[in-house]
Amino acid sequence: MEPLKVAICGGGRTGHLNAILFKQLHNVQVSMLTSNPEVIDQHTRHTPMQALLPDGSTLSARLDRVTTDARVAVEDADIVIITVPAHARQQMLQAIAPHLSADKPVYIGAIPGFCGFDWLAEAALAERPNLVIWGMKDVPHTAFDLKPGLSIKMGGSKSQLYVATHARESDASRQQLHTLLTVLYGPCVTLLDNYLEITLTPGNPIMHSSVIYGLIGPYGQWHRKIFPQRMCWWTECPELGAYFLERMDQESQDLCAVISQRLGVDLSSVKSLKQEIVEAYGEQIRDQSSMLSILRTNQAYNDILAPMVPADNNRPGYVIERESRAFNEDVAYGLVLLVEMARRFELKVPYIEEVLNWSVAYMQGLRDSALDYFPSHWPRTA
Ligand SMILES: NC(=O)c1ccc[n+]([C@@H]2O[C@H](COP(=O)([O-])OP(=O)(O)OC[C@H]3O[C@@H](n4cnc5c(N)ncnc54)[C@H](OP(=O)(O)O)[C@@H]3O)[C@@H](O)[C@H]2O)c1
């Protein structure tokens, strides 16, 4: 039987972990497209890649191809998985699109699929009917402590994986995608009815931006101050950040309700962030009484550092990093999209807008954003 050919585009944490897991399966070929010369170098030396699992065990793999050449990585792929952050996806799609097969279905998806990957891929792959666009709601496992080409640590796993396709895909393509992803991830894969269920699920865009705003925004206790040491995102989350997060979570639910009602789509699978976190981490959260306590007492969130860099001009201490993914990805591709969707339904989301406007000023303006691909006609043809 022909092997299943998987191309992983992006040699970061998520890319490494998924590639190693797939190589544990029978008859699966894995290629990795990376710009990191260390990953290439280790592959050339035949060094095995290792995944260090939470129970202390190790999985080892040698990928079939590791390359900087987009053509070599994807030309015969059956399934392509983009694992670069949202702000790098457009460039990745441009690099691989000319080399994807035109002679068979190719299932091209993003993990995670948030920030409207379906709209981006639709724009980039418009005249390519054999390409089936999909996204996964979240990463299947957290991945951290990457040693490029050598090892990656696996954190918590999701018990259920939710996947959606672009609205253009047929039932037969959706079923075939489900079959392929079940081969790769096991029976925990569920197909969602509508890609909006991914796009509207609250997550990092509201979580990261609200906490930063609560720390250093105009009312934050660290406004225009330098942190003496690096802070943890969640265990040291400020009350003001949790307050804004709760408000933004509510506005995000309001948006979901309006879209569901006006477009007549069932978005009942989209839960509030609070509910998502409590359901995902359960007993690991010592105090589930409020957003603040959920964030501060979730053991799974312990010791995760906020994105900070040393202060400039040799001043001792740290500041929040303007170039962090919390801005480039979560604000420019997450919050921007929420606010624009709300605007098109004439829904007011003042808390999200307040945090967005401040964040954009802090990052000294948007260079690029989800508006570069969000269809100007939406929701008219949705
Ligand atoms: N790691 C996790 O546990 C986790 C948890 C939740 C969500 N996520 C999401 O998963 C996605 C991938 O995250 P990750 O943790 O795997 O990231 P990562 O370790 O930083 O890897 C991302 C890879 O994307 C490529 N890339 C291209 N342009 C980039 C750019 N401008 N900035 C950063 N990377 C760029 C790089 O690949 P090359 O080195 O091959 O060039 C990089 O190694 C992100 O959307 C992230 O928000 C990850």
TrEMBL record:
<dbReference type="InterPro" id="IPR003421">
    <property type="entry name" value="Opine_DH"/>
</dbReference>
<dbReference type="Pfam" id="PF01210">
    <property type="entry name" value="NAD_Gly3P_dh_N"/>
</dbReference>
<feature type="domain" description="Glycerol-3-phosphate dehydrogenase NAD-dependent N-terminal">
    <location>
        <begin position="5"/>
        <end position="106"/>
    </location>
</feature>
<dbReference type="Pfam" id="PF02317">
    <property type="entry name" value="Octopine_DH"/>
</dbReference>
<protein>
    <submittedName>
        <fullName>NAD/NADP octopine/nopaline dehydrogenase family protein</fullName>
    </submittedName>
</protein>
<dbReference type="InterPro" id="IPR011128">
    <property type="entry name" value="G3P_DH_NAD-dep_N"/>
</dbReference>
<feature type="domain" description="Opine dehydrogenase">
    <location>
        <begin position="193"/>
        <end position="361"/>
    </location>
</feature>
<dbReference type="InterPro" id="IPR051729">
    <property type="entry name" value="Opine/Lysopine_DH"/>
</dbReference>
